[in-house]
From TrEMBL:
Signal peptide: none annotated. It comes from the Eukaryota. This is RGS13 protein. Residues 34-150 form the RGS domain. InterPro entries: RGS, RGS_sf, RGS_subdom1/3, RGS_subdomain_2. PANTHER family: REGULATOR OF G PROTEIN SIGNALING, REGULATOR OF G-PROTEIN SIGNALING 13.
């Protein structure tokens, strides 16, 4: 398959012209030390999200990042609005970006959605973190996507 028709190549090229050009080799190498280093680094979440798109599981990182932003909301009115959006996008059955969480976690959110607290998505967020850490993160580290990024950074002396 030529690089012009490879969908993975197109995604990677698009990222090379965007965020991956801002990644340092040092940062990229730190991602292999732990999932925590990947997810908390400056560019890691967006590179990881690009990879997850290739697996059709980018809803996981989107939900996790949305929860991080949600926790910072101080206005109760805004918290209610955002909580409902998170619920309809990721939690409710048949949601457009439904995440894979267990029934008890889903029931807790349903019970708390009318008056959501800062921590009402914590259990679901922890489950998704665990899914990513155990499942997609090891695949990310072994992927051609990550290997090509590291090679590109090493070659360019970035």
């Amino acid at each position: 398959m030529s690089p012009n028709t490879c969908w993975l190549c197109k995604i990677f090229r698009a990222e090379e012209n965007g965020i991956s050009s801002k990644v340092s080799l040092e940062e990229a190498l730190q991602w292999s030390q732990s999932f925590e280093k990947l997810i908390t680094s400056k560019h890691g979440p967006m590179i990881y999200k690009t990879y997850l798109k290739t697996e059709h599981s980018d809803e996981n990182i989107e939900f996790w990042l949305a929860c991080e932003a949600y926790k910072k909301i101080t206005s109760q009115r805004k918290r209610i609005s955002v909580a409902r959006k998170l619920f309809t996008s990721y939690i409710q059955p048949q949601a457009p970006n439904e995440i894979n969480i267990d029934s008890p976690a889903r029931k807790v959110i349903i019970a708390n959605i009318q008056e959501p607290t800062q921590s009402c998505f914590d259990e679901a967020q922890s489950i998704i973190y665990m899914h990513m850490e155990r499942d997609s993160y090891p695949r990310f580290l072994e992927s051609k996507f990550y290997q090509k990024l590291k090679h590109s950074l090493q070659t360019n002396g970035n």
